[in-house]
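Hi Q.,

Before the meeting this afternoon, I wanted you to have the zinc ion prediction in hand. No need to reply - just skim if you have a minute. The sequence and ligand are here:
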Amino acid sequence: MRLDESTWTDARDAETELALLPVGSTEQHGPHAPLGVDSLTAEAIAEAGADRYAADSGDEPVVGPTIPVGIAEEHRAFDGTLWVSEDTFRSYVRETVESLAAHGFDRIVVVNGHGGNTEAIRELCARVSRDGDAYAAGYTWFDAVDFDAFGHAGPAETAVIRHLHPELIRDDRLDEAGDGAADGWGEWVAGTNLAYDSDEFTDSGVVGDPRDGDAALGEELLDSAAAELSKLLEAVARRGR
Ligand SMILES: [Zn+2]
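Predicted structure with the ligand bound:
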């Protein structure tokens, strides 16, 4: 049940204790993929995971609205990228989670599409679970699926968007994206990443080769992310506080 398409009476009558909150980012994903990749992906995975869990268990979770701006200052050199501070993000997402709990949705999974958000989500979910009236856990889809060459706006993310919204991938800019891409994230010396911003190591904003990401791979990744999320929902639903 999508909260933004439901009425307050629907929310009142919902029998589930489970809620999902998709969290994305508005940030550069190379010249070929849209700024909203992380939000579009988090939302699609949250919905697919909730559907799969509902089909298996008969319990239909609530899916909250997608939070569109996250911790993405590392991409600030690229136009259109938006960000908030870690403190603002933690407070905003935690208070949103707590308001879900106030309505009785007190098992919450934050479904994350952006690496820069991961640590803050873990921290705020711990705070809610330790001190609040709910149990919350963060799920970052690319940590759950089995795929090595993740990168940034590389094969995996390009493939997922190609599957979900093929019209949003600019095929005529794939060579520019791939030729200006870095092989890995950061500028590492002695176990230390010297780079704070992504333009220090990638010209096009991309890490990995987006030309390797076709729609079939995207479908496979999305399917596996939804299956893992459904597994997590089952464990969170069973878990005591
Ligand atoms: Zn991304």
